[in-house]
Amino acid sequence: MKGRVVLTRITENAIDPSALLAAVADHGHGAHLLFLGTVRDHADGRPVAGMGYEAYVDMAETTLAAIAEEAATRLEGGAVAVVHRIGELELGEVSVGIAIGSPHRAPVYDANRHVIEEIKKRLPVWKHEHYTNGDAAWVEGTPLRPEAARGERVAGEGGEA
């Protein structure tokens, strides 16, 4: 029996690790894994002061749901929850949270690795690093796909899209 996706979201709100774990909680699960990606103070040898994330929200939510569904097929009755943050983040803030629950530990690790690796490859979320010297640069990321030309929302600047 494959797992199920219980939560996927692109948000400008802070990610709550406890809520992610609660979303995948089940008395039948003997393994729970929480992965948090945070804004670190360096990148490629440069000191970082913060990070901005922008996304084509509609496309990003669709892609994130597909990635989570792929991960759920790797589980034996488990659950997947994934949230990615957009907007301006300070050092130490959580940019991505992944929670996986399953009856056994091996599928949990496999599903988590699938989610984070596919996010890095496919999710249309772009990073803008802010350096301590006042410079900023876009991090090479997902190229714009043709679907984006059909008018999906862009968010990350200002309010929730």
Write the layout of secondary structure elements.
Layout: E1 4-11, H1 17-24, E2 31-38, E3 42-43, E4 46-56, H2 57-72, E5 79-85, E6 87-90, E7 94-102, H3 105-122, E8 125-131, E9 136-138, E10 154-155
Helix pairs in contact: 2-3
Can you walk me through this structure?
By secondary structure, this protein is α+β, with helices and mostly antiparallel strands. It has a single domain, classed as Alpha-Beta Complex (Aldehyde Oxidoreductase, domain 3), CATH 3.90.1170.40. It has helices at 17-24, 57-72, 105-122; strands at 4-11, 31-38, 42-43, 46-56, 79-85, 87-90, 94-102, 125-131, 136-138, 154-155. The strands form two sheets. Strands 3, 4, 6, 8, 9 and 10 form a six-stranded antiparallel β-sheet that branches. Strands 1-5-7-2 form a four-stranded mixed β-sheet, sandwiched between helices. A hairpin with a 2-residue loop joins strand 3 (42-43) and strand 4. The longest helix has 18 residues, at 105-122. The model is unreliable at 144-154 and 156-161 (pLDDT under 50).
